[in-house]
Design brief:
The complex is a heterodimer of chains A (289) and B (789). Chain A has 13 helices and no strands. Chain A is mainly alpha-helical. With 789 residues, chain B is an alpha+beta fold. Chain B contains 22 helices and 39 strands. In chain B, the strands form eleven sheets. In chain B, strands 26-25-27-38-30-39 form a six-stranded mixed sheet. A four-stranded antiparallel sheet of chain B has the order 1-24-23-22. In chain B, strand 28 and strand 29 form a beta hairpin. Chain B is globular. The termini of chain B are far apart. The chains are: A mainly alpha (289), B alpha+beta (789). At the A-B interface, helix 2, helix 4 and helix 12 of A face helix 1, helix 7 and helix 22 of B.
Amino acid sequence: MRQERKRKQPYGREGRVAAWFLLPSLAGTLLFFLLPFIDTVRRSFFSAKGTRFEGLSLYRSVLQNDAFQLASANTAKFIAVCIPLLLLASLLAAFLMRAIRPAGRWFKTGLLLPMAVPVASVVVVWKVLFHEKGLINAFLLENGFSAVDFMGTDAAFWVLILTYLWKNIGYDMILWLVGLDGIPHRQYEAAAVDGAGVWRTFLHVTLPGLMPTFGLVAILSLLNSFKVFREAYLVAGPYPHESIYLLQHLFNNWFVNLDIGRLCAAATILCTVLLCIILAIQRYFKEED
Amino acid sequence: MKKRTKIIAAALLACFVFLSACGGQPSQEEGQQADAKGRYIEKDITPGEGSARFALFRAADGTLVCFDEGYKNRYESRDGGESWEKTPGPGAGDERFERVWNTALLEDGSLLAELQGEPDENGAVPPSEIVKISPDGTVEPVVIEGFSDLVAEGQSVFVTAMQALPGGKLLLGYDYGYGGGASSEEDASLPSDSTAASEPQASTEPGQEESQEEEEIHYGGNPQAGLYDLATGKRLADLSEEMELAATADEETLYLLGYDGSLSARKLEEAGTAINVDGSFPLDEMTMRVGLCKGPDGQLYFADNKALLGLEEGSAAPEEKMDGASYSFGAPNTAIEKLVVLEDGSFLMNLTGPDGAHLVKYTWDPDAQIDPANTLSVWMLRDNPVLRASISTFVSKHPEAAVDVEVALGEEGGMTAEDAIKALNTRMLAGEGPDILLLDGCPAAQYANNGMLANLQGAVDTSAMEEGLRSSFEAEGETHFLPMRWQPPVLLGQQEDLENADNLNALLDLVRQGSARPLLDAESEDIFSELSEGERPVLSFDSLREVHELLWNSGAPALIKENKIQKEVLRSYLEAMKTLSDKDDLASFGEEGRPDGGLMGMSTNGADMVSIKGSPLRYVTGQAEYAAFTAEDTQILFFMDEAPGTKAALFPGLAPGSWLPSCLLGINADSSKQELATAFLQNALDLESQSKRVGGGFPVTGEGLQQQMEDITQMMADFASERDEEPKPPAFDFDAVLAGVGAPVLEGEALKEILYEAAKAYCEGSLDLTQAMAQVEKETAGALAERQN
């Protein structure tokens, strides 16, 4: 009987204690994230002052807006290109790191440093490198190539990708390393005994073992991809080249123009899409488990 | 149980610490309550019937001594200006005092004065002389080392600053070399025994003696300054290198304020030894008239139009004592001639403005309170003299009210305009926005569309506004913001020339056919010489930016219609830029513009320096056939007077009749002081505010414009009288210009800047026309798409 009671109360005493400790953080999350989000959703159905109910007209206006469509397409394209690249590059970095142990710790530090560099410094470096009279163009001209207008052409998109990869490789690499450490060594031994080569070991031991980590890394990378807006904004201003005109640019400009209703509607749409993606990823990996 | 209680207590403590860190600041209203207790009360204590200017002094015994214009009357007060005793001044019966600009009151009650002779027919000014006028009327010359030597040599010398200091010392600044038409080394070189600093002598090499003589010709003045002993006339210290904007002294020390706001000090004894002094005052680099005074409490007090500040001894940062916005010394067309601190801590200011000079006293009343309900908050992105002037008149009419001015892009900080607007928007959405908004540089139309601005229709009487200016801001029976000034792009020329240039294409054809502007040496004396008819270009500008401003202000409404860039208008725009740029070779000079341009002049308010646009300057000096610019105030009438026969018309831009609204004011719809805010806006449209000549554009009311015209006409008549010329009434036909006004330019800075960058690239040759057009369309696509509904 006592055991049955325990099953009906899965969290038990320890769980309740944990809940109390989590309370301050939860209160902060509620106050600074959840409540504002609920207010944002509410505002997406009202005028800027919140006095006139607009219904779905704001959503309709957002979805039909050319700027929103362009920004969405750019953001989707950016995510579709940078996330796989980042996952691949960081995974390779993790493997490399393990292969050159113990010297790999310097390598790890080097890859983590970009995360610690302030955005303003990144912007300065960016300008020095990619300005029309910057170092890269100077190098190109010296070697007989023509200069590239990095921020005024489609090249801006790849500069943004490069910045994102540079900033986040180290972080994702750490997550992969944790995942790799979580794969029992016995499985590698068993694979070796069975005569599996490097590639087969990777396909049938490493990759399946990394699946839980894969989901986490993908979600975090997706969320970090939105932070690259800071560099784009500081370098190119509120109206950059169209290839790097992202959703955050649109939100920023709508806020400046006090177009709050459409801003909230667009933010709600974005949030809904992201939530669906994240839930889909979680569900996929849950089924895999 | 015990353990559980401990855990719960720890968790609750953590919550408490977390949540308590989120608040704790006093509310704005509480702060206002705290600040509202005690304030300075302003009182006009101008003696006599008033005067165009006063010379104010505080004698060693605390008596206030004041002379009116021409020094005809002397006023003394022993009760801090509450009452004045009038006696004849040294200028009664002596016309020379009509031209006295510098005087100093000595410790024995004598007056030191610089007497200047009348200019001759060529405009050359004879040397001044410094005299001492004793209380019994005896006049005797004063010998000052250096100065008197130059006068004896026949140099054209005049005093720039004169201040009597304790212990028989004198601070004297002077200049020489102006207007003498010096053509020989004798005229221009320094006296051989002078210790004054001067421009370094050019080194001489064999065969270069002649050129050295030419190099010694100074045609720009030789400013000198020094600390002198009055008894002997000897110079104790050379202060020529210390750029001095203002000076004050106590018994021991002379304090000098530099043009950059920095402070330096000299011991009055010890031959003017320099000593360290901490601190500086924030100074707008264009401000010329400030007050500086050492108070009896040991603080250094500084006053400009923005505020009166006090700097304690040893402190590096001054403290604000009075916000200029709430008092008449803060009016932008008011110059602070002198600041005096009385023994009881009151401040006395000698102020001059368009309506003459006033002595104003500010006394601290600890019981005076301003009810927060009567305190209006006014927000502006950048400081605006028109709004400041309105605030000044409002406060004087409503002494029970106060105005809190917030300038978002102040002198400190690296905030951008966008950051400032976002901060404002956050406050507006939270219901904590300011009561009055100056919307220049802000998305005014969006604010109105989103219901952030109160409807002014029926609340503010706009009947005094010119119909063409007012109607542009009415939509569906509502008005949400109104301009207090307007700036038309204008074209000046002779009547027949204007008829030949009644559209942009005709004007550009004339430009293409006309001469190119010669590049003059900026140091040359011919920089402002008239060009012959064959050499004179049709239009002439100093920079690409100047051309762009003109074309934008006269074309923006046609460029963007129905949220789309009009391609043909854009093409015309870029071609016009190229034509005008090529003629003056502007593209090769970059952002700084042509080196033979960039003249500074005194602004309309007579207190600040402003940059004079190239086109009107070239026209007035006979270096161009036409002038094309956006007229920023009634000073345009002076330009017309300088070139006889000048007529004016609206510039025939791409959007005929377009004009730039300025000082757009709106009331926050959520403001709890709607009545007071409405009264403020009404006051801004009243004659007193509209007639203030502070730049920013022409008044939007007929009576304001009429008043300013009358003031300018009177000034022009006075100038003509001084030159023994017949006064000419201004020929600017405002009615004709007003009849042609069309759409106002309300487009934001972002699109304007995109257009400029593309036009600049086209003018420089890095883009061709098609590429430049494509760049504009591409870069504006996002901004325009965002607005699409």
